[in-house]
Amino acid sequence: MLTLVLAVLGYYLSPYGPNAAEESPRKTTNARSGSFYLAKVTRVVDGDTITVRNRDGATLKIRMHAVDSPELKQAGGEQSKAWLTQQVMNKNVKIVVNNTDRYKRQVAKVVLPVEGCEKRLCEAETDVNLKAIEAGHAWWYWEFARSQSSEDRVLYETAENQARNQRKGLWQQTAPLAPWQWRTEQRNQR
């Protein structure tokens, strides 16, 4: 009988207890810069935003750090979303948090992890943010460069220059309009 009482008490006090669904989003939504966690991608919103479910069952919206893909109504937007969907949909990813934006999304590096890696970043992991730029489906969002490591700044800038020179993805267009410029134009037309 005592064992049963202790087991029930343990359940109610554990992170898997009846209030886990209420508590988990609060804990993870406010993830600190530099923290990381594993999650499964449940939705691709557009070429630079995904929804994930972490191991606690919390659903979180992630804005990919230092990249900006065409908006869905913009030339290349649907292609960018399709590319990202192919890369991450229903896959396990590592979310390396940079900050939280004004829309309460975590701004993060999205990484395809290697098995057995328990560190923030491991060699041979795939930086999906960088791959989006390399494939020509996103711009390097240089406005946020100072929040990147110096190594990432070089990698992201080089990737954009190579994609542009090789006319990959959105760079096949004659004069692709950067998403931040497109958004400004849309606001000014209102």
Number of domains: 1
Structural class label: alpha+beta
**Number of beta strands:** 8
- CATH topology, anyone? OB fold (Dihydrolipoamide Acetyltransferase, E2P)
Which second-level CATH architecture applies?
Beta Barrel
What order do the helices and strands follow? HHEEEEHEEEHEHH
Mean pLDDT: 87
Give Rg in angstroms.
19 Å
Uncertain segments of ≥5 residues (pLDDT<50)? 2-28
Overall form:
globular
**Number of helical regions:** 6
Helix amount:
25-40%
Beta fraction: 15-25%
Major sheet details: 5 strands, mixed, barrel
CATH hierarchy, class = Mainly Beta
Please summarize what this structure is.
The protein is of the alpha+beta class and 190 residues long.
Structural write-up:
- The chain is of the alpha+beta class and 190 residues long.
- The chain has one domain: OB fold (Dihydrolipoamide Acetyltransferase, E2P), CATH 2.40.50.
- 35% of the residues lie in helices and 24% in strands.
- The chain contains 6 helices and 8 strands, in the order ααββββαβββαβαα.
- A 5-stranded mixed barrel has the order 1-2-3-6-5.
- α4 (128-134) packs parallel to α5 (150-165).
- The protein is globular.
- The N and C termini lie far apart (69 Å).
- Residues 2-28 have low confidence and may be disordered.
